[in-house]
Amino acid sequence: MKPSIPGGRVVREYVPPHLRDAMYACRLANAYEMRTGRSKMRYVLVCNVHEGIDPEQPLRILDTTVAEQRRRAGESSSDADYIHVAELLNRLPEDLRKRVLHS
């Protein structure tokens, strides 16, 4: 939880654990992509954080590389452009995957 001071009082913000883990996985995956000389922002978490987030629903992550390839091929956006956190974790090297799972 992060403290903030709107109107001079301290308010604690709550970030659901599954959202925090998804954001962390995206951040690590993007850093890994950049380190290996590929896309700098390949994975983008698609989530409206201003509304309630159902912890039972998997969060979707846009794979911008796949989406761009489909766009160049003249195809429209589809569910194939998105992955879930579990699939993103499978794409990470083991040391980075462990950092997310044990954070």
Q: Uncertain runs with pLDDT below 50, 5 residues or more?
A: none
Estimate the global geometry from the Cα principal axes: globular
- Taken together, the total number of domains comes to 1
Strand content: 15-25%
Strand order of the largest sheet: 3-4-5
Mean pLDDT: 85
Terminal Cα span:
15 Å
Q: How many strands?
A: 5
Q: Quickly count the helices.
A: 4
What's the Cα radius of gyration? 16 Å
Helical/strand content category: alpha+beta
Write the element-wise H/E pattern from the N-terminal end onward. EEHEEHEHH
Concise overview:
The chain is an alpha+beta fold and about 100 residues long. Helices cover about 40% and strands about 15% of the residues.
